[in-house]
Write a structure and sequence with these properties.
six-stranded mixed β-sheet, alpha/beta
Length: 268
């Protein structure tokens, strides 16, 4: 088992009264699995993902339960051990790359950052790895992109750069938090298709966070539906689409255009 989340609870303690944002969340992921975590804004899906990535503050919130990555407990392990896993064994891409990419650093420098942190490769070796990864995420003219700045790229190209940055150390788990929300539908489909191909080729698991069940259906074999910090339903994606058991899931599905509920939008 690659990832085990057991009875995860997250409370904010920066107000007069504690605020529970994740309650009793438990799930497993196997190596190479594509798992969707879906729900409306405030459902706790992104907080769950950030907890798995080790990106939540340890000061103004209380976290209980267990997050086991290859048997290692991430919630309570020392910071040094967590940093060795972040960006190396677990990669993460975010919704809007322009807020994640440094506007004054060239793309090549930014994609290679994790290699400088986690490896002892030479500058030449890092550049070769970065160019190979830019090509792997299907960016045309990777040598040109390597020398460009974020503002010189389109939204779809910037998201491919973020995928390259997250994958440069060949992580076993990629967490994608609403990675296509800012893109048009054509580019969304291209990015999801790319993630699926990379997962299959690299044997990499993907935890895909979205409010859109139709996108989850395109990518993931299994889905977890969250509402108000709790898991309300989980199962095989096609089963959830065909026979949802919970009213909230039915509500989410009702917001998906009818043309997107068929299998026509699924890609190979």
């Amino acid at each position: 088992m690659l990832l085990q989340v057991k009875n995860l609870n997250i409370e904010f303690h920066d107000h007069i009264l504690p605020e529970s944002v994740v309650s009793g969340v438990s799930f497993d992921m196997d190596e190479g699995e594509l798992l969707g975590l879906v729900g409306e804004s405030g459902s706790g899906k992104s907080m769950t993902a950030l907890a798995v990535a080790g990106l939540l503050s340890r000061h103004d919130m209380k976290k209980t339960g267990e997050i086991l990555f290859e048997g290692k407990e991430l919630l309570t392990c020392p910071r040094e051990e967590l940093r060795a896993i972040q960006g190396n064994e677990i990669g993460m891409i975010f919704q809007e790359p322009m807020t994640s990419l440094n506007p004054v650093k060239k793309i090549g420098w930014q994609v290679g950052e994790s290699l400088r942190i986690h490896t002892k490769l030479s500058k030449e070796e890092i550049k070769a790895r970065v160019l190979a990864m830019l090509k792997k995420v299907e960016l045309k003219e990777p040598e040109l992109v390597y020398e460009q700045y974020p503002h010189e790229l389109s939204g779809g190209m910037r998201q491919r750069v973020m995928i390259a940055s997250a994958m440069i150390c060949r992580p076993k788990l990629l967490i994608a938090d609403e990675p296509t929300t800012a893109l048009d539908v054509t580019i969304q489909a291209q990015i999801l298709s790319l993630l699926k191909r990379l997962s299959e080729k690299e044997g990499m698991a993907v935890l895909f966070i979205s409010h859109d069940l139709s996108l989850v259906r395109m990518l993931c074999g299994r889905v977890i539906v969250m509402q108000q910090g709790r898991m309300v339903e989980q199962g095989e994606t096609e089963q959830i689409f065909s026979h949802p058991s919970e009213d909230y899931t039915k509500l989410l599905l009702s917001s998906v255009p009818v043309c997107e509920r068929g299998k026509g939008l699924r890609f190979a």
